[in-house]
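Handout, section B. The chain below has 138 residues.
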Amino acid sequence: MLTEFGKVFVFFSIAIIFVVAIVYFAKLLRPHRPTHEKLLTYECGENPEGSPWVKFNIRFYVVALIFLIFDVEVVLLIPWALVYKEYGFFGFLIGAIFLLLLGLGMAYEWRKGDLEWDRPMVKPPVLQKIKSTSTTES
């Protein structure tokens, strides 16, 4: 007789075997016709130029993360909009607080400049030499 952990182990073992078997059978059945074009780094019609190790601007990732954060928060508004009348003023107040926090987050990101695509370059301060006005007496 199997314990509960034994049943879970058997379930995961069967799942792993099933996945490996399906991938193996798919590899056997699929056509394999490699050509020069298919073996290139990019298969989009453009010839690759230069090294694939290109440094991307961090702005791409920042904008993507901000989009994901606000997108998920906006998705949370849909269920609230459907049922807030059932909870009366309390439900409306919770949604208003959520929208206020969402607006504050958006204002913070805007104030920081993360929503601007072209951020102005920060010029470091330059120290200037001060001319000495001391006179030497002879």
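Note. The helical segments are 4-29, 58-83, 88-112. Compare this with the example in section A.
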